[in-house]
Every structure is written in structure tokens, then in C-alpha cells.
Amino acid sequence: MITRRSATALLGASTIVSGATLASAQAPTTITLWHYQTGNRDALRAVLDQFEAANPTIKVTDVLKNNETMASEIQAAAMANRTPDIGQVLGRLVVGMIRNAGAQPLDGLPESEALERHILPNFLAIGRYRGRLYAVPHSFGTPVVYINRGILRDAGLDPDQPPRTWQELRQQARQIRERTNKIALYVAQGGRDVAAQQMMTNTGADMMDPDLKRATFSTLETIEAMQLWQDMAVKDKSYGTLTERELGALFMGGQIGMMIQSIATFQEARRNAEGKFELGIAQYPQWKSLPRRVANSGSTMLVFSRDAQRRAAAMKLIAHLTSPDVTNPWAVESGYLPLDPRASDSALVRDYLAKEPRWRVAVDQMQDTIPTARWPGNRVVEIQIVIENMVQALVQGRGTAAELVPAAERQVSAIIAQSS
Amino acid sequence: MNSRAVALGEARGDAWARSTAWRPYAYLLPLIVLLGVFTYWPLLQTFRFGFLRLNPGGPPEFVGLQNYAGVFAHNQFQDALRNSVVYVLGAIPLKVLLPIPIAFFIWTIGGRIAGFHKSVLFVPTLLSFVVVSVLWIWMLNPVAGFLASVLGLVGLGMPVLLSNADTAIYVILGVSAWKILGFNVLLYLAGLASIRRDLIEAMRVDGAGDWVIFRRLIVPLLSPTIFFVLISTVVFSIQQVFTPIDVMTQGGPANATTNLFYIAYQYTFESFNIGFASAAVTLLFLAIGALLVAKLALLERHVHYG
What we know:
- The complex is a heterodimer of chains A (420) and B (306).
- With 420 residues, chain A is of the alpha/beta class.
- In chain A, 47% of the residues lie in helices and 15% in strands.
- Residues 13-24 of chain A have low confidence and may be disordered.
- Helix content of chain B is 76%, strand content 1%.
- In chain B, helix 2 packs across helix 14, helix 3 (66-73) crosses helix 14 (274-299) and helix 6 (111-126) packs across helix 9 (168-192).
- Chain B is mainly alpha-helical and 306 residues long.
């Protein structure tokens, strides 16, 4: 029998329960995003504010981290079960993040199907692992040739006829060296190994086998390409062999003829060149007559939340960050590659290209950009150092490409076999 | 005072001593706790991690000496070990021996001019290693550097030093020594200040020349300071080159400038390979420890503390 007193208690309890349910339905889900957008932090925050306004039940806390130590911090956080919901990590570290930090698959989550529409398939490939999608590209770069048009003119070259192949590039670089006595070319290494990867994949080679078990970059074509690099440095003396920091500063100071560097540097190069030298840009040279095929530089976004509600909120944010309404303005503002397969049809991109036609190389090279090697395991830096050392030994003439490239491949395969 | 009063006094003294015996331990306790938590516990953990592989979402796995074998097998470690020896041995003439004659010279001249010399030598010590490293990058740059401009005036070219695998390590060593030199000169000047000048006069009266005075009087009396500078140089020289390596060469070209400290940093903060990092740090700790024990055993008997 329900007494008056127990009925009152039941009513009170049900009021509390329904109130709590209502509160939980209305309480926002706060997700954390770790990123390293040092220069674009305000722009990123504006995008996040826009997302929060459109999704009042989700709040995003953005935390600025150091690019170099981000992967370590996420792995340390994974050990302590305190990973961020989303992390921005360099593309080459995606597999390590899946294996050692518990990155979560995105396919199957609500709104994930939008990714296939909004991102070029060759860009989205960076996030695929064993048939599932784990990461999406963000702030992607592709290598291009930055040209000091004045130095090319001084060397008797036509800056409107930039080198189309590496063979033409070598000829032009030699002419610049002979006629101006300046350093003709510098290739930015892009975090130790990316430049070497680009040189080798451009010849048609793959850095690893599809199972990511061993390195496969030592081929007749890659050896020939790396030998050309050495010949430019040792025989022609046209290639700059100073440190990365010095060479970058010298190009920006108008002292070097050409620089191969990510399109992400475009805005910085444009600002630096103003009043100093006339800046031109050309596409990455092809290897002989082969189609251009260059490894990307830049980062990806991965989701680490294990809680279903937070993971769904994180996916919603990822879908927002990769929608053309965000990626096209982001590319135009920052200089990074657009992700949208139809970027060139966008009014915003068209207007920007009309104003800044040099940036067209970015749009033109989108289809030629393939995923960077995603070195597996926890010894990525050691692998990168092996490749970096190979390039440094080459340009210092400490062995031929036929000796150094196969030796580096063996070392990388050995490290992959030993790493977890 | 009768014997009863003495006994009473002694008893009171004993009781006071007993009641206050805990005090030294209480005063030491905060330091012991801090050292334990922030130095010795991490050290023991580092030693332990050297035998483990960390697994996300699971317990660590005991792997025996696998991490040590992996570290030893890699040529990056072999290069880092060889370079570490060069950094330590190269630091001794530059950071331990060179400041002695400089300090002796300043001590001898005395007065305001000595103060000026001290200030000039000490300024690099006040600069951060990052500033010093960037400054030297552009001093040595063969295209647009200061030295290239000076050499260009007499028709000479500036050689490539920093990106040459044969010379880069000596640039790093030189930059580190340039920054530390003034500090070590000051340490030696402090040691020299305790030497009585009348002893020198007495030796001069006996016909001793400058070299004899330096060798027979100054060096023995300065030996505790020399020993201190030597020990601190051995312990710190591998750490002191960390920032110049990171800013100027990142360990390259072709591992020519990396060292054990730098690869331990890379294993930890770039790869999160804690097993390898712990193994490398343990090896570094043992190597420096062995070097210090050897130095203490061989050299301390020659130090004149009197």
C-alpha cells in the first residue's frame, strides 16, 4: 500500500531522476584537441568557435603542444589513460599512433562517410591501415620549387621556363653556379627524411612493402636519382651543403637560386621576398618522363577517445574540420594544400588564384601527392636519421649512391624488424 | 663544584642531548625526501625501465637485456659514444687547462684593467646557449657570415665547418668552450685569491723565475680548484653541448655531432622509446660514474688541500 509519505518520496525521487536526465541531455560534451598550430592558432580557434556555435552540445578545448614531442606526449598520455580526444600528429607517425597509442578507427562513426566526399582519395590514404580509416589529413603540404627569378636571369636563364625534370634542374643549377657563383639549389629536408622520400617515390619506388615489414626504396631508379643529387653537390658544386637553418635563411635573404620546399612555406616565402627579390614558384620536377609522384609533408588528425559519446563528438569535429567550407579558406589563408577534390571549382579558391596565380602549383599538384612513408613502430626517429645520414653522406661524397642507398635500406629494414 | 653537582649537570646534558637527538634528522628530512622523490626514485625507475617494454593498455613486459642489445647494435649509439668521448677529452684542454693561464694573467695584472678583462670574459657565460649557438652559426656561415666577410677582404674563402662531418664536432666543442671559459676563469681567480702574494716574493728572493713560481707554487696551491673544475667539466661537458647540437646540427651531419645525452633525448621525447632511452641513460650514468671514480683514484692524491 502506498502511503502519502511514500508517494511523496517517490515523486521527489522521480523528479530528481528526470531532472538529472534532462541535465545530462543538456550538459555539453567537452572534448580536447591537442594541436601544434603555433602560427595559425587564432585561425584554428575561430574554426572551433564556429563549430561550437553550430553544435551547442559540444565544447572544444584546444591545447597547443610542441610539434616535435607531440607523438611522445600522446603515447605517454595513453599509458596513463589520459589521451586527448583528438590529436594532430605528423602523417609519418600514423601507424605508430594506432599501434602504440590506441588511435580509434573513424569509419562506422556518424558523419564519417562525409570524409570520402570531402577529401581526395590519395590524401585520405595516409589514414588507412589494414582496411580501416584512422586518420584524416590536416595542414598537408607538397614540395614545390621556389625560384629567385633575378638569380635565374643573372645566370642567363628564363625564369618563365622553370625546370620540368630533375635532369633540366641539374643543367639550370650548373649554369647558375657557373655564371653567378651562387648556391643554385637547396632541398629542404622536411623533418629529416621527407625530401629523400620525395626524390625516391618520384622515380616510381615505394619506401616500404604494403605490409610495412621492410624498406623497399633501393631500386636502380632511386640509386640513379640519388646519384644525381650527389653529382650536383660534389661534381657541379651547385647544391648547397650548409645546414638546413643556414640554407633556408639564405634563400629567404635572396642568396640562393632555387629552393625545394613544401607549399606550406608559400606565405612565409612571399612575405620574405617582398622588397628583396622576385619570387617564382614551379611544380616539383619529374624524374625523366615519369609522372610526378611526391610524398606529402604535414599532419593528420586522429581520434583517441574510448568513450562512445566523446568519440562521436570528436568525429563531428573532424567532419567539420575537413569540410570544404573550412579546408578551402584554411588552404587559402595558410598556403597548405586544399583537401577538397573540387577545390579548383570553389569560388574562394578561384578568386584567390586570380589574385595570386603562383599558388596554382598547389592545386595542380594535388593529384600527384601520395602519402608519406608511415614508418611503423617506436623507432621512427632512428629510421629517419638513417635516411638523413644517407643524404648527408651522399652530398659530402662519402660513398656513391650505389653503396649508400642499399646500405640505408638494409638498416631501415633491420630497425623495422626490431621495433614494436 | 662538588661531584654531585657535576653528575647532575652531566645527567641534564645527556637528557637534553637525548631529547634533541632527532633534530638533525628532522632538518635533513625535507632534503632527503626531495632527493628521494626527484632524484633517486627516478634513477631507480630509469634503471628498471631499461629492462622493460612499455605496452599501452597493458602491463610492461620484461625483455631482459634486449633494450641494451638494441641500443648497442645501432650505429647511432656507436657514433654517439665515440663523440661523447671526444666531447669529454676535448673539453679538458679548452675548459680546464686554458682558463688557468688566463686567470693567472688577470690575477697578476690586478687593478681595474683586471676587472675589465674579467667582465669581457664573463659576458658569454651570461648569454643563453641558444643565443650563443645562433650567433656562431652566423659568425661561421661561409656565404653571409662575419668571418667570411673578414676573410673576403684579404681574398680568402671561409671553409664550410658546421656541415662538414670532419669538423662539425670541433665547432660544437669550441662554441661550448667559448661560453664556459669565462666562468672557469672566475673559479680559478677565486682559487688564486687565497694564495698569499708574499710567498711569491719569497720565491723571487730565492731566485725563482715565473715558470718555477707557476709550477712549484701556483699549480699546487690551485690544485683543489683545478680538481673541482676537472670533475665538473667531465660531468657537465656532455650536457653543455646539448643545446648547440640541437640548434646548430641536430646531431648531424651523418651523426658527426650527436652524443649519448642527445640520443637519450631523441629516444624519449621524439620516439617515446622509453626502454632504449632508459638503457642509454643508464649507460651514460655508468660511463660518467666510472670516469669520475677513475679520476678520483688517480688524481686526488696530487691535490694539495692544506
